[in-house]
Amino acid sequence: MAAWVVLGHAVELTGTAPFLPALAAKLLQSSYMAVQVFMIVSGFVIAHVLLTKREPYPVYLAHRWFRLMPLLLVVLAFAMATRQAYAMAWIDNPWAEGAARIARMRAEDAHWPVYLGLHLLLLHGAVPESLLPYAAVSFLAPAWSLSLEWQFYVLAPAIAGGLLSFRRCGVVALLLALSIPTLAGVFGTWQSSQPFLLQNLPFFFVGIASRHAIAGRIPPPMIAGCLAALAILVFMRGLGQVVALAPVVAIWALFLVFSAREARSRPEASSWLDRLAWVLGGNPALLALGRLSYALYLCHVPVLSVVVAAGMAATGRNDRLLIVALAIFGLAASLVVAWMLHVVVERTGIRLGRRLLSRESVVCVAPSR
To answer: Which candidate, 145, 157, 122, 165, places its Cα nearest to that of 49?
Structure first.
């Protein structure tokens, strides 16, 4: 999914979509679907954490903070320090359609302290862009989804508990009720993306329900919550937009089949399903890419910007062939930088969080079935 986003941005940077096969171009230009899969994965993973770990809420949230923030802070600083390269690569480059980015960079210049403060709080995606233009995508555009993740993390224990029992469903019911005016634009609008939790409840709910399905049972309140969230999405966005999510559903269904088979650890000989699971996600190359996925997702835009801007400055050219060659080199450089960030920053942040929080007392906050 991270690679889907990265390749989509590379196509956008080079303006090569018209030269690709129609289906490939359409998929690469629809990389927002990869982020929608991220949301389902997040619901799945956090439901797993709540089912298998017994942590006080502050400890749970601190673990999530150490998972996200150290890497985000480093890459955000890198992106802010290389804004001039970004402007050259995405605005001076004639193939990248940079008009909207001009307005965004002007807004960053005018409101940078506010944008930075919102990033440090991981709330830049919660502010309507009708109130503060480009807040969600300021400085480091892919980081809008991290704000969305954080919004979910903060409420996840209450959401997961509310989906288990009708007696505890108050928070879920309130979120569903508030999602209707949110989707209608009553609280403001977001032009660049959909970075607010109330715009994306069905994805997180489906992820939570999927983890319970792996355990063998989906509680009735969870089924009701998922159906209600999907019904609201259909009512507010139209059936066409929901049908357009078919690739997301297909990807997740395949993952769920693989996960269910792995969870049951069947002893029979390897089948075609096991071989397909190995090809699509279990082989060493993709497992390695998966470990780098968070760092790659965050760093690829500034790395591509630096490589393309440096190449344009060194050659004095901006023809498409040069930009394509630079983008290919930038993709390779992004993998190298992602590996370095993963080893030096991401893993260090996770270890530091575990060390600092390891002495905390253990209290059950996980929803019980």
So the answer is: 157
